[in-house]
Amino acid sequence: MVSNINNRKVAPNNVNDDLFNEKIPFREVLVINADGEQMGVMSKKEALDIAYKQNLDLLCVAPKARPAVCKVLDYGRYHFEQQKKAKEAKRKQHVVEVKSLRLSPIIDTHDFETKVRQTSKWIEAGMKVKIDMRFRGRLITRLEVGRKIMNDFIEAMDEVAIVEKKPSMEGNTMSTVLAPKKK
């Protein structure tokens, strides 16, 4: 079941793509019992009978293998454990935020120092900072001035940040990326 919201296909949260019990499309499967021992290749019907006699389910763990490998287990418990692992992994993952900062080739010293302070706060908070310097109009002829300011900025951030992407020109914009130093 897929709902259509604003012409976007959105899958429900409880999508289950596991092949288990009657959903297994293969005629012959290699069966592994609940203890982890191979029981050999048999028909899907025989494998389901073995699983049902033990009040367990048959789960296809390797559908691309020939023959497909199926395991006899308690599917409810298995599914719960998988959800628990996914939740734990999601909780442990760290998303790095990238802040954006714009410099100008004709920047005053006070403005420069303010931007350095703000950037160092972001870096110390564990964020990456993308610094852009846009050359407008005739300033494009003065790239060396912009490059000097960019290098001065990088030098000012040298204690707390490393250069992840060296300054480079993309159209009329010079950009670089700074990342926190590893502790």
Automatic annotation (TrEMBL):
PROSITE patterns found in the cross-reference section: IF3
GO molecular function: ribosome binding; translation initiation factor activity
InterPro entries membership: T_IF-3_C_sf (IPR036788), T_IF-3_N_sf (IPR036787), Translation_initiation_fac3_CS (IPR019813), Translation_initiation_fac_3 (IPR001288), Translation_initiation_fac_3_C (IPR019815), Translation_initiation_fac_3_N (IPR019814)
Record keywords: Cytoplasm, Initiation factor, Protein biosynthesis
Compartment list: Cytoplasm
Residue ranges constituting the Translation initiation factor 3 N-terminal domain according to the UniProt record: 21-89
A biological process term (GO) from this entry: ribosome disassembly
A single GO cellular-component term on record: cytosol
Gene3D superfamilies: Translation initiation factor 3 (IF-3), C-terminal domain, Translation initiation factor 3 (IF-3), N-terminal domain
A Pfam entry, by short name: IF3_N
Domain annotation Translation initiation factor 3 C-terminal: ranges: 96-181
Function: IF-3 binds to the 30S ribosomal subunit and shifts the equilibrium between 70S ribosomes and their 50S and 30S subunits in favor of the free subunits, thus enhancing the availability of 30S subunits on which protein synthesis initiation begins.
Record note on quaternary structure: Monomer.
Sequence similarity: Belongs to the IF-3 family.
Name of the molecule in the record: Translation initiation factor IF-3
Lineage per the UniProt record: Bacteria, Bacillati, Bacillota, Erysipelotrichia, Erysipelotrichales
Protein's gene: infC
